[in-house]
Amino acid sequence: MLDQNAAQEIPGDLAPADREEIAHTTAAVVVHRGRASEDPAVIDRLVRLVEDEGLDVVAGLWADAASNTLPGALWRLYVLRTWVRHDPQTVTLRYRLGVGAAPVSEVVAGAVTPPGPDDLCDLADAVLSGVFTGDLDVALERAGAFCRILAAGAAHDADAREASDDLAASRMTHGASALLRTAEELEHAGALWRAGMLE
Description:
The protein has eleven helices and no strands. By secondary structure, the protein is mainly α. It has one domain.
């Protein structure tokens, strides 16, 4: 794992090729170390990577990676988990609103019905744990399904608020679009992993 001091020693103006190489190397090390370990403490530490190392450190490594790469997929998973952990009430509301519009995605996402904030935090951890202990493609597809449900919920909420708060509705619609794009990116990354092409 790259600690805070080591991350700060990486020059800020790396050439794009060097930055890309660091992103791919660290993502591969994280995933392969987790998959090679049977120690639950190692898996737990990898799931809590952002909490341990800080989102800024992880962002410095993976945030610029393309969505069809391993570091790009990991970045999306960690950002999704961070959102669930920091705002579980909003995520729970969006999930509940979106379930009716995306029932197939609910089955794939694997959440209980109706989920509470703690259930969704556990689901986010379970999806990320699946990256290291299960089939990565399944974990990515579950995360994609989860994002589809949240996107449907955000769109539904935007429609309900449009008459009373047009600006908030517009922000929610934009958020729904971003969640749908993230869902598609995660699902595509899962297909690439299955084909042996996610690096």
